[in-house]
Every structure is written in structure tokens, then in C-alpha cells.
């Protein structure tokens, strides 16, 4: 289904597979590099985009055109937990769920009842969650997003509003989504390299943002991070859950 999303995006904006591959390789490389700094990540070996693009087909086989092995997240085991409490009970530094929004879309493949080139449900949920928090995307310190496939992260850039639809790769080329960028995405290594233990994934994304906001991150630490965005999707963009987290107290 996500390969069909990639095909729909290429057709809509007149891109070739040769153009798409380097952008997807950059997303994979970013994930591997970030995960190498995260002691809890499943993969610990950094790779550059050039490393990935130079792999022979037997080392990076086509899974479903145009997505190859290194475009797919891991089959992972894992667990995660959160403890929630009434904000009035908190003393000192804590992290609050400032807003949350969940949006549902059609349960079918891309290109039938929903767009085959834009993640509409995710975009809707991001917009509602940010408005509920009284924030703009420019106010977010970092984000953890559901990169089940590299194409998913690429198109989440437009869903989050950090790059125009059809030019999502600009978020990579500008450096915006890297560790030293204005909105680092998936510093944990993401599903792509940290791992994707299905049922634990969403909670794990929140746990990672919590650690960042408390200045206790595993791996890359964003200095003075104040707000975090979690964008989690399920199925073929069928469920879309977005949280805005904020540090409070000192």
C-alpha cells in the first residue's frame, strides 16, 4: 500500500524512480545515523545515503516497487510504558500532553477513497493538534513520526507543514529535519532503525519525546527542548494520532 503511495506521488508530481531513490536513501541514512547514538535502538550501524545507493540488488532487494529493503522498517520486539497523572499533582519539572487529536480515514489502499499522493488524515490530525495546543509547527522543538517506510516519513513532511506538497525533499536538502536542524525528526532512529514493535511503537514515541523534554534523552539530546510532536499512523493512513507534548516547571 505504501509502495502505491510512492507511485501515486511520483505520478502526481512527475518524478521518476531515479529521482525518488536518493531522497528515500537520505531518510534511511538519517535514521541509521541517529539510531547509532541511541543505546536502545535495534540497529547500531550508521550508513550514509551513498552507502545505501551503492548496495548491489542482492543486498538491497526490491520489496515492492519502488520500495527496497532499506526503505522498510524493522520487524521488532519491544515494550514501552507511560505513567499519567493529574497535572495538579505534579511538582517540579514534568511533561504535559498539551493536546491530542485522532483522525480516521478510509480503510482501503491509497488512490481509492483517499489520496494516493498526500497523507490527508495525518495532515488533518496535525493541524487540529497544533491548534488545540495554540502552537504552530515552527514552535515545535522536535518530532517523532511514523516512518514505517521511508516514503511515509517523506510525505509526513508535507502533512506536518514543514515542506510543500510535491517538494517534501526540501526538508532534507535544507537540513531542517536533521539533528542540528530547526525541527529534528526521529532522533531516536525512528521505526526504520530504532525498531517498530507494533503495539509498543506509539507509546515508545511518546516516551522518547518525554526523555528529550526532560533532558534525559537516549542518544542525541536537543538542548532546552520545550515542545515535542508525535505523529503516529496506522494501516494505510487509516488511523492518525497526533500529540503535542510540553515541558513544564524546572
What's the SSE pattern?
HHHEEEHEHHHHEE
Number of strands: 6
Spatial ordering of strands, largest sheet: 3-6-5-4
List segments where confidence is low: pLDDT < 50 over at least 5 consecutive residues: none
Specify the biggest β-sheet. Answer: 4 strands, mixed
CA-based gyration radius:
17 Å
What percentage of the residues does DSSP assign to strands (E)? 15-25%
Characterise this structure.
This protein is of the alpha+beta class. It has a single domain (2-248), classed as Peroxisomal Thiolase, Chain A, domain 1 (3-Layer(aba) Sandwich). 34% of the residues lie in helices and 15% in strands. The protein has 8 helices and 6 strands, in the order αααβββαβααααββ. The protein has helices spanning 2-13, 17-35, 49-53, 120-133, 150-160, 170-173, 190-193, 198-213; strands spanning 62-64, 67-68, 94-104, 142-145, 227-234, 239-248. The strands form 2 sheets. A 4-stranded mixed beta sheet has the order 3-6-5-4. A two-stranded antiparallel sheet has the order 1-2. Strand 1 (62-64) and strand 2 (67-68) form a beta hairpin. The model has no long low-confidence stretch (mean pLDDT 96).
Amino acid at each position: 500500500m505504501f509502495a502505491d503511495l510512492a507511485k501515486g506521488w511520483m505520478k502526481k508530481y512527475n518524478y521518476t524512480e531515479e529521482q525518488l531513490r536518493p531522497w528515500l536513501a537520505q531518510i534511511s541514512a538519517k535514521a541509521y545515523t541517529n539510531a547509532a547514538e541511541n543505546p536502545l535502538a535495534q540497529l547500531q550501524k550508521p550508513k550514509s545515503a551513498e552507502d545505501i545507493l551503492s548496495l548491489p540488488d542482492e543486498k538491497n532487494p526490491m520489496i515492492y516497487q519502488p520500495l527496497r529493503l532499506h526503505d522498510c522498517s524493522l520487524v521488532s520486539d519491544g515494550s514501552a510504558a507511560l505513567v499519567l497523572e493529574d497535572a495538579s499533582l505534579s511538582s517540579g519539572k514534568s511533561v504535559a500532553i498539551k493536546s491530542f487529536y485522532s483522525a480516521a480515514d478510509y480503510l482501503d489502499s491509497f488512490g481509492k477513497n483517499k489520496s494516493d499522493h498526500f497523507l490527508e488524515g495525518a495532515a488533518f490530525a496535525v493541524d487540529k493538534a497544533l491548534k488545540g495546543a495554540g502552537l504552530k509547527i515552527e514552535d515545535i522543538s522536535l518530532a517523532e513520526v511514523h516512518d514505517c517506510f521511508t516514503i511515509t516519513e517523506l510525505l509526513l513532511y508535507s502533512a506536518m507543514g514543514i515542506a510543500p506538497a510535491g517538494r517534501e525533499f526540501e526538508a532534507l536538502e535544507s537540513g531542517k529535519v536533521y539533528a542540528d536542524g530547526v525541527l529534528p525528526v526521529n532522533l531516536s532512529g525512528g521505526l526504520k532503525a530504532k525498531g517498530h514493535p507494533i503495539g509498543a511503537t506509539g507509546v515508545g514515541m511518546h516516551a522518547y519525546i518525554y526523555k528529550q523534554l526532560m533532558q534525559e534523552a537516549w542518544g542525541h539530546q536537543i538542548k532546552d527542548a520545550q515542545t515535542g510532536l508525535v505523529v503516529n499512523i496506522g494501516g494505510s493512513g487509516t488511523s492518525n494520532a497526533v500529540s503535542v507534548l510540553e515541558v513544564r516547571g524546572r
